[in-house]
Amino acid sequence: MTDMKKRETLTAGALMAAGATLLPGAGVAASAPRTPFTVAATTIPVAGSDEVFPVRRIYCIGRNYAAHAIEMGSDPSREPPFFFQKPTDAIQYVAPGQVSDHPYPSLTKNYHYEVELVAALSTGGRDIPVERALDCVYGYALGLDMTRRDLQRGMGDQKKPWEIGKSFDHAAPIGPIHRVAQTGHYKHGDIWLKVNGETRQQATLDHMIWSVAEQIARLSQAFELFPGDIIYSGTPENVGPVVRGDVILAHVDGLPELSIKIV
Ligand code: MN
C-alpha cells in the first residue's frame, strides 16, 4: 500500500468512527473496531442491583496487618505499604450462599489462603489526599488473595519478581460488591477465615497498619487510579495451606460470607 493510500484509509476510518458516534441512537458497538475474536470483560455483580462492576485493575497491598507482617519476616513498624497486581481475569466470582469449586493451581505444593477486605473505586486520580481518598470508593467486597506460597518465597529468595506466586488463573476469588451508599465504609468489623469449620484467621479491620484511605492515597502516588480499580487491602496473620477437598469459609462483618472448595 502506498503512503497516500494508507493516509486515505486512515482518514476514511477516522471519519467512519466519528460518523458512527454521531449517529443518533448509535451504541458503542457501532463504532468499536472489528476484532478477530472476543475477549471477555471482567465484572463483579453489585449487590441489590442489576448492574455489574467492571474491573479495570486489581491492586493488592502486602503485609498490612502487624502480626502478618511479623509472620512473613518483616518489621511492621517501619515499612511503608507496598503493592502488587493480579491480572484482572484472575477474578473468580463467588455468589453468596454457594460453595464454588476452586481449582488447585499448577506448580505449587503450598497453596495458601489470605482473607481480605476489597475496596472498589468509582473515581480515581493522582496524588489523592488521604482526606479525600474514601470519596473514590464505590463499594466493598470480601476477597481471597490466593497465593502459591512456595513459588512466592522461592522467587523472593532469588530476588526475582513474585508474579508466579500471586498472579495466576483464579487467584482472586471475590463476592459481590456492596455499595458504600448503602453500607457505609468498613473500618472496624471482624474479619475471619475458617477451613473445614476450623478458625484459621481472625482479626478486626482496625488492625490494618494502613487504612483503606491511606492505601488509596499511597497507591495514587505510584499509579493514576481509575474507576474500576479494586484494592485487596491485606490479610491478617495465620495464613496457611489448603489441599484438595478443603472448604474455605471467609467472613467480614456486614458482607455475605464467601465459600470455596479446593478441587
Ligand atoms: Mn494478600
Structure description:
- The protein is an alpha+beta fold.
- The protein folds into two domains: 1-38; 42-262, Fumarylacetoacetase-like, C-terminal domain (Fumarylacetoacetate hydrolase, domain 2, Alpha-Beta Complex).
- Helices cover 24% and strands 30% of the residues.
- It is built from eight helices and 18 strands.
- It has helices at residues 3-22, 28-31, 66-71, 130-133, 149-157, 163-166, 180-183, 212-222, and strands spanning 43-45, 52-54, 58-62, 82-86, 91-93, 99-102, 111-113, 115-121, 137-144, 147-148, 172-174, 178-179, 190-195, 198-204, 230-232, 240-242, 247-252, 258-262.
- The strands form five sheets. A six-stranded mixed sheet has the order 4-3-15-8-9-12. The protein has a five-stranded mixed sheet with strand order 6-18-17-13-14, with no helix packed on it. It has a three-stranded antiparallel sheet with strand order 10-7-16.
- The chain is globular.
- Residues 1-27 have low confidence and may be disordered.
- The site of manganese (II) ion has 7 residues, from loops.
Features:
alpha+beta; Fumarylacetoacetate hydrolase, domain 2; 2 domains; 6-stranded mixed sheet; 5-stranded mixed sheet; 24% helix; 30% strand; disordered N terminus; binds manganese (II) ion
